[in-house]
Each structure stands twice: as structure tokens, then as C-alpha cells.
Design brief:
alpha+beta; 2 domains; 4 strands
């Protein structure tokens, strides 16, 4: 009986490790759409912004609204784009790198 339970535990551990690896790889698989990000303009809606750049990885509230954060890890480098919003519209456009 013990051997059966040990095998089940191993399978559960392997399954958990597999899920963690897939989650970590998800951040590596989709670089930020910098071409889309370069088309962001003040006044765009959140929907327009996410249509250009893709789904944001995080949102953080600040005193006057919120920011959406896109973050990817590519070749050991962190790519991050932080766009401030107020009333559901882009407040300001951050500088977008020419190439990444």
C-alpha cells in the first residue's frame, strides 16, 4: 500500500513542477508588442491600449488613477512597460525603446 501512495505523491509533485514551469515559460513566450506600444496615444481607452500591446500582467492603483504594467522576461532581460490611466483613458505615454 505504501508504494502506491508514494507513486501518487511523485506524480502530484511532477504535475506541480510542470505547472510551475509552464507558468514561468508563459512570461518568456510572449514579448511585449513594442510596435503596438509605440502607437499608444494619450486619451486612448484601456481597451484600445490592450488591443495594441496585449493583455497587461498587472494593475496598480495610484493617487489619481491606476497603471497597467506589461512585463516579460526575454533572454534574461526584463522588458517592462508601465502606462498610467485616469478615468479609463491613457494619461501619458512612456518612452518606448526603438528596439529590444
Amino acid at each position: 500500500m505504501e508504494e502506491g501512495h508514494t507513486g501518487e505523491r511523485r506524480m502530484k509533485k511532477l504535475g506541480t513542477i510542470g505547472v510551475v514551469v509552464l507558468v514561468l515559460m508563459g512570461g518568456c513566450a510572449k514579448p511585449i508588442n513594442w510596435q503596438g506600444a509605440s502607437q499608444l496615444r494619450p486619451g486612448m481607452t484601456e481597451g484600445e491600449a490592450t488591443a495594441l500591446v496585449g493583455k497587461a500582467d498587472a494593475m496598480s492603483a495610484n493617487g489619481n488613477g491606476y497603471v497597467l504594467i506589461w512585463r516579460r522576461y526575454v533572454n534574461g532581460q526584463v522588458q517592462e512597460l508601465v502606462v498610467p490611466f485616469r478615468d479609463g483613458r491613457v494619461l501619458a505615454v512612456p518612452q518606448v525603446p526603438g528596439s529590444f
